[in-house]
Amino acid sequence: MRRLEPADLVVTTLGLATDASPLALSTVTGDGVADYVPEGARVLCDVEVSVDRPLPRPLMFDKAGPRERIFFDPARTTAGIVTCGGLCPGINNVLRSIVLELHHKYGVPRVLGFRYGYSGLDPAHALPPTLLTAENVRHIHRMGGSLIGVSRGAPTVAAMVDELVRHDVQILFTIGGDGTQRGAHAIAIEIARRGLAIAVVGVPKTIDNDIPFVDKTFGYESAVEVARQAVDAAHTEALGALNGVGIVKLMGRDAGFIASAATLASREVNFCLIPEVRFELGGPRGLLAALERRLAVRQHALIVVAEGCAAALVDEHSARDASGNVRYGAAKLDLGPQLRDAIIDHFQRAGIAIVVKYIDPSYMIRGCPANAYDAIFCDGLARHAVHAGMAGKTDVLIGRAHDIFTLVPLPLVTGEHKRIDPDGATWLAVTEATGQPALHG
């Protein structure tokens, strides 16, 4: 990640917050009533230091939370929500909590759900926004998917801002990953250029858990839970055959967090392949040779591979989705089947009989409801997003550092991805759990 300066962490505010918050919280610590968060509250970016190095000027995020003074008059506020990108466990939880916080706590009378992602902000779109009420979101947290739909890509930024103005929206909540938040930042820039008082607040949504400056994105824990079920099923299949090989392909476009976490949760994986760590198929120290040695001793093996390991196959002509992301599910770049076929071919040529079972649980994972931990986390993200929007914070994402919710300027999360450190504790834990060697010469 690039070197940050304190100025990079300054949060944009639409103007002076003069209205009293309707939340009736406290400014006195210890009185048994939850406190407002003062504007000067900060959260350190890093808590780990070395006694061998002088401590540099600490970098700090603004702490998220309810403010005593707010920018928008709730009775005159209309909020809008978009859910973009692919499906992810917990989207409906976030939707529901945003609506209920706005309705019950702030008294905002009108919340619009723009349908099918940013295309819902396209003036040429045939579908009008959905009016989201406490009644029609009552039970959606128990369902996977998104009540208002998702999509990738977006119309022009100017057209989207025109649509916000047409619907008299004062706060736009953007639920999505890096592509969504790039769009949100572009919208915020156009709003500022026009001198409009519209807040843009992002909620980090990506199964891959790869948004920087956010210690966890919603949907990730639910994804790991279902991924572990697929990994354990593949292990059962591998055990049931002589020289059985189970292969599970998991999501992870740029980072191997799901593959690594599912490996650590299962404790049955022998080889975990992630985009951050180099591996080779052939050669005396490559995966195929290591797999051959494993089968000779134990007669079964289990491999987990993240989709982004196919990055080495990408060229300028590779298929991309509407958000510009490489389509690793396209036939030429789908590493799971390619790995399966390479293993089968290698052992056929070696004259060794094997049984290979391949599992890709991607859409089962994306469509499942949030588990208990994600449900709690989604509610926290949603409520803090509402507090930020009502206080007039804009061009900002709700983050979390050291279990504290923070305000992260959107420009920080739109240019890079959080990734697993091959020299760090997570990858050390994976290699100790699997026993796998370095898979390259």
Protein architecture, described:
This protein has helices spanning 91-106, 157-166, 178-194, 220-239, 257-266, 287-298, 335-350, 362-366, 372-390, 425-434, and strands at residues 12-13, 19-20, 42-44, 60-63, 69-70, 78-83, 110-113, 130-131, 171-176, 199-204, 244-250, 271-273, 300-306, 355-359, 393-394, 396-401, 404-409. Helix 4 (220-239) crosses helix 5. It is built from ten helices and 17 strands. It starts with 11 loop residues before the first strand and ends in a 7-residue tail after the last helix. The protein has two domains: 6-217 and 368-413, 3-Layer(aba) Sandwich (Rossmann fold); 221-366 and 422-434, Rossmann fold (3-Layer(aba) Sandwich), CATH 3.40.50.460. The chain has 441 residues and is α/β, with parallel strands linked by helices. The strands form four sheets. The protein has a nine-stranded mixed sheet with strand order 3-4-17-16-10-9-6-7-8, sandwiched between helices. The protein has a four-stranded parallel sheet with strand order 12-13-11-14, sandwiched between helices. A two-stranded antiparallel sheet has the order 1-15.
- Unreliable spans: 313-330
Assembly level? single chain
The CATH C-level class name of the largest domain = Alpha Beta
Major pleated sheet: 9 strands, mixed
Please list the strands of the largest sheet in the order they lie side by side: 3-4-17-16-10-9-6-7-8
Mean pLDDT: 90
Compressed to H and E, one letter per element, the order equals EEEEEEHEEHEHEHEHEHEHEHHEEEH
CATH fold category name of the largest domain: Rossmann fold
What level of helicity do the residues show?
25-40%
Q: How many structural domains?
A: 2
Task: Note the total helix count.
Answer: 10
Query: How many distinct beta strands?
Result: 17
Radius of gyration: 24 Å
CATH architecture of the largest domain: 3-Layer(aba) Sandwich
Beta strand %: 15-25%
Global shape: elongated
Computed structural class: alpha/beta
Distance between the termini: 28 Å
